Amino acid sequence: MADSDDIQAFIQPYQIPGASDELNETLECMARGFAATDAKLREIIAEFHKSMKAGLARDDPDALPMIPTFVNRRPTGTETGSFLALDLGGTNLRVCRVTLNGDTTYELAQQKFTITQEAKSSRLWDFIAECVGVFLEEHDLHPAQGRRMIPCGYTFSFPIFQTGIASGNLSMWNKGFTV
User: Fold this and answer.
1) How far apart are alpha carbons 20 and 135 in whole angstroms?
2) Which residues face 155 on adjacent strands?
3) How does pLDDT run across 64-97, given as a tens digit for each residue?
């Protein structure tokens, strides 16, 4: 919003014709809390960037917590192949086969497994292996001819200190996990 006229234009739609002055004043007060000038938005953005940089540098414990990424490019949509994908969250493990067709389209087969309390506390890796085994068997999946493995990507929904594109160290367990 550029100036006070723009802020008034922002607030105007929140007035209710025929409503009491008290209600419209309350609505105007609430709307003003969400209105911002261009200068204020630039100030917010600058502070956000400053907090992100401090979080990445770990200089300030009150800064926005940030973990660096090692992803250095985006997919183009021309990628091809079939891959396993594992997504470990707080309550479910999803095992997927994703086939990329090279034309920005894909095919997906997936199965969701509820993570047991036992898996959260002592048998996590056995649980994951068992679920992958069930998925491979039920979908009759095998490595491609001449290969020993099926390529696999893994989404790990827990805080880690990433040390490379495919490696990192767990910061801490959360979401009820105590493995």
Assistant:
1) 62
2) 87
3) 877 777 888 889 999 999 999 999 988 999 999 9
